[in-house]
Amino acid sequence: MKQFTPSHAVNRLPEQFFAKLVSKLRTYEENGHDAINLGQGNPDQPTPDHIVSSLKKAAEKPIYHKYPPFQGFEFLKEAIATYYKRQYDVDLDPMKEVAILPGSKTGLVELSQAFLNAGDVALMPDPGYPDYWSGVAMMDAVMEPMPLVKEHDFLPDYSAISEETWNKAKLMFLNYPNNPTGAVANRSFFEETIDRANRHDVCVVHDFAYGAIGFDGEKPLSFLQVPGAKDVGVEIYTMSKTYNMAGWRIAFAVGNQSVIQALELLQDHYFCSLFGAEQEAAATALLESQQCVEDLRQTYETRRNLLVEGLKALEYDVQPCHGSFFVWLGVPEGYTSEGFADELLEQVGLFVAPGNGFGSHGEGYVRIGLNNSEETLKDALQRFKTFQK
């Protein structure tokens, strides 16, 4: 069979970290072993009933069986603007400052395609969500890491970035609450971000995937809540984590008009928006009672407390988790991230994500997800107890 050569853009793509992880777990289970999957960030709870019911009813409407408007239905954009006003007291123009996305991952890649040329610099959190890298690689741009370290509360130290790098940078990716560290950002950090972005003409992309998941009575801060944020960037919000809608693939970008315009132009050439019934269900989720969101947040906080307290009792180096549904665990002395992850799987059937898969500064850690029941997490703690360090 003839073998065709992919484009340079495709050949530049990094190995898909999560696909590699899943393959390793599948091989382990196919060999007859029992494993507890703590390595993925896949919500384990169902989508709330009222959202599913909305989809079912909307699917019967003939209008949704036609092509939707290229940039989505106005009612969903208006619902997004209403949601941001209610939740964060942020005013958005629904037609100019909101873009509907087929999942946040797609939008994050599209932003690099929309704003980077070959050789341009993108400032990248390290460790960070690996799929940020994909769009940068496709555009043959340059990633400059911003180390996230414990001593700096897993926030980038902007003073450590050279003036030359700042002047070359076109995009900056941020993500708080953070995947994988569980750290959160404060107002002063975002204020400094806006100041730097203004001075150096950098477009800020804040991935707010875990915006609804904050602990200890602290609600995560939206980047757009800070004055000047819309001048320098956008925020990406996904329905996946807030409403357990990961399989629905629906998200949105909000903020700077020029960025929203470029995203929508690009998407006009890629997609014809999303199934209209899904858009109606998403509007239902955003506009109706948010008690399901609070219930979910409490579930994750209970799980976090159970797991973190248990790991501390076993004398593991576990970092405080203030948001997201991840725990950032320091590996025992003498192990690398991958070595510890492999040993956990082989010895006791615990599957975790090695920290170096999120960047070089993730070395020395593994990421544990809170996407399992309390009973399963108790079982996991028992397995950690029997693990021979």
Structure description:
- It is a single chain.
- With 389 residues, this protein is of the alpha/beta class.
- The chain is 42% helix and 14% strand.
- The chain has helices at 8-11, 17-30, 49-58, 74-88, 104-115, 132-138, 163-168, 187-200, 229-232, 239-242, 257-270, 276-287, 291-313, 337-348, 374-386; strands at residues 36-37, 98-101, 121-126, 142-147, 169-174, 203-207, 233-238, 251-255, 317-318, 326-330, 350-351, 353-354, 365-369.
- The strands form three sheets. The protein has a seven-stranded mixed β-sheet, sandwiched between helices. It has a four-stranded antiparallel β-sheet with strand order 9-10-13-12. Strands 1-11 form a two-stranded parallel ribbon.
- β6 (203-207), α9 and β7 form a beta-alpha-beta unit.
Shape: globular
Number of strands: 13
Proportion of beta-strand residues: 5-15%
Helix content: 40-55%
Rg over CA atoms: 21 Å
Strand order of the largest sheet: 2-8-7-6-5-3-4
| Total DSSP helices | 15
Distance between the termini: 49 Å
Give the mean pLDDT. Answer: 95
Low-confidence stretches: none
Main beta sheet strand tally, sense and closure: 7 strands, mixed
Specify the structural class: alpha/beta
- Topology as H/E string? HHEHHEHEHEHEHEHEHEHHHEEHEEEH
